[in-house]
Design goal:
Layout lengths: L2 H21 L3 E3 L2 H22 L10 H14 L6 E3 L1 H17 L18
Antiparallel strand pairs: 1-2
């Protein structure tokens, strides 16, 4: 994927995080740049976790383990990104809302390894 594609994904992720911040009590993002860097930190953390434990446990994986890891990544990211604050309940609610939004508007992490749409059809 080209740099522009990655940039668009981060912008969409930042907008989703800003919307979630407006919607979820106990989760706040100070502005667009904080949301952008939060999306970057979440993507990097997901990439590292996926490399260590596999795709099933990543924040973008499905199931309860992916949901719990997603909440923990959101909670821990507040210590890295300025103007972001969340309680553990806020991180859980944010992970829930992000998961629901992802059902309708799937935004994959730029680091996610997957099919490029050019499957080998044998």
């Amino acid at each position: 994927m080209h740099l522009l594609g990655h940039l668009v994904r981060f912008i969409v992720s930042a907008l989703v995080l800003m919307f979630v911040s407006w919607l979820v009590p106990g989760f706040s993002v100070g502005g667009f740049w904080s949301a952008f860097f939060l999306a970057l930190v979440i993507a990097i953390a997901a990439w590292i976790i996926e490399g260590i434990f596999g795709k099933q446990i990543t924040p973008f994986g499905r199931g309860i383990v992916g949901f719990i890891v997603s909440a923990l990544v959101i909670w821990a990211a507040q210590f890295i990104v300025t103007n972001v604050s969340t309680s553990m309940i806020g991180a859980i609610l944010a992970a829930l809302v992000i998961g629901i939004i992802d059902l309708f508007i799937p935004v994959k992490t730029p680091f996610e390894q997957g099919l490029t749409g050019r499957e080998d059809r044998r």
